[in-house]
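Researcher: Sequence recovery benchmark, item below. Answer with residues only.
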């Protein structure tokens, strides 16, 4: 019999969406509906969880464990990407109802991500995971439902100009110029995770690849764009070390060489994505995180 946990959404989700979010107000109804639709029994909410989704550990009617994910938006794209990967390198999709933002996924070890490993080992496993994800967006080269990197970056351009502080104007201009130049001669169009980082790769159970990616915001574009998010992983640790600039450039070289990606394209996308992420943090009032991202972009 379906049952709903008597707990509120994690505070991380509330802070991200705002306490007055209409989606948060509908969340109890959406959760109850998904539990009933797939005959699930809820165990507990995963905390701290994501910034735009709620994940609940559940049991199916036959007692098999699973994870129910409710997304505020983007469920259709995530479902399409997981379906395309078919469980190879990514969590397996069991059921989907994109209209309500509900996804039923195989259960992984949510508390064990690549961030639990030493950095060198984590990057080695991350590289292996990414290799499996970079596939054509549709079999046989047909049409696909995914947003392209070009479309995504075009939407972000105005936010970058509007929300970065005046002293970062030159860096913003450089990032946008790099983006335009990189898009002009993009070498490939592959399905990308879109938000690939160590924390988005979780330990799996027996009979599966040991590490599987979760939480994609899929895009179609070149590998260097996807890899660029990984370059700045463990950013606060990196910023606390001496020689952060040289260490950052070394990361670019190592990751580019490991995945046979052009170093300059990876450097350019890493700079752009840091600036773009900084603009989102400033827009959300998280100025300290925004400043850290701008500092990282300066190292590149």
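Model:
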């Amino acid at each position: 019999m379906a049952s709903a946990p008597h707990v509120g959404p994690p505070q991380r989700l509330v802070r991200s969406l705002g306490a007055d979010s209409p989606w948060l107000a509908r969340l109890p109804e959406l959760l109850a509906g998904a539990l009933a639709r797939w005959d699930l029994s809820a165990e507990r909410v995963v905390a701290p969880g994501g910034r735009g989704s709620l994940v609940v550990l559940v049991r199916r009617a036959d007692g098999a464990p699973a994870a129910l994910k409710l997304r505020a938006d983007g469920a259709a794209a995530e479902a399409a990407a997981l379906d395309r990967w078919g469980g190879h390198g990514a969590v397996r999709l069991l059921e989907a109802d994109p209209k309500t933002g509900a996804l039923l996924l195989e259960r992984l070890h949510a508390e064990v991500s690549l961030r639990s490993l030493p950095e060198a080992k984590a990057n080695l496993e991350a590289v292996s995971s990414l290799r499996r994800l970079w596939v054509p967006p549709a079999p046989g080269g047909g049409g696909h439902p995914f947003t392209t990197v070009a479309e995504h970056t075009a939407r972000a351009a105005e936010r970058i100009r509007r929300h970065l502080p005046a002293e970062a104007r030159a860096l913003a201009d450089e990032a946008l110029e790099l983006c335009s130049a990189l898009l002009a001669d993009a070498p490939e169009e592959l399905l990308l995770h879109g938000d690939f980082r160590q924390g988005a790769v979780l330990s799996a159970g027996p009979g599966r690849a040991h590490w599987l990616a979760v939480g994609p915001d899929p895009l179609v574009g070149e590998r260097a764009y996807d890899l660029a998010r990984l370059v700045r992983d463990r950013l606060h640790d990196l910023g606390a070390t001496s020689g952060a600039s040289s260490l950052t450039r070394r990361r670019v070289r190592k990751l580019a060489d490991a995945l046979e990606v052009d170093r300059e394209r990876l450097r350019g996308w890493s700079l752009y994505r840091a600036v773009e992420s900084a603009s989102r943090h400033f827009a959300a009032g998280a100025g300290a995180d925004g400043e850290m991202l701008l500092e990282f972009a300066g190292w590149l």
